Amino acid sequence: MSEGKKQNLVQGAIILTMATVIVKLIGALFKVPLTNMIGGVGMGYFNSAYHLFNPLYAFCTAGLPVAISKLVAESVTLGKYREARKIMKVSTLMFMAAGITAFLVMIFGSKIFVKSIDNPNALWCVLALSPAVFFGCMTSSYRGYYEGLRNMYPTGISQVIEAVVKLLTGTGLTYLVLDIGMSQYAKSGTVFGIQVETINEAKAAALPYAAAAAVAGVTLSTLAGWLFLLLRHKIVGDGIMRKDLLASPAASSGKTLMKRILKIAIPVCLGSLAMNITSLVDLVSIMNRLSGVVENSYNTLLEMYKGNIPEEVLIKPSEMGNYLYGIFSTMPTTFFNIVPAITSALGISALPNVTKAWTEKNRDAMKSNVEATLKLTALIAMPAGLGLMTLSRPILEMFFASKMQEVSIAVPMLQVMGAAVIFVSLVSPSNSLLQAIGRVDLPVKFMITGAAVKLAMNFFLVAIPKFNIQAAPYGTLVCYIIMSVLALGALIRHSKIKLNLFSIFVKPFFAAAVCAGSAKLVHIWLSGVMGAGRLVTVITIGIAAVIYVITLFMVKGVEKNDIKMLPKGEKILKVLEKFKLIR
Question: pTM of this prediction?
Answer without folding.
Answer: 0.70
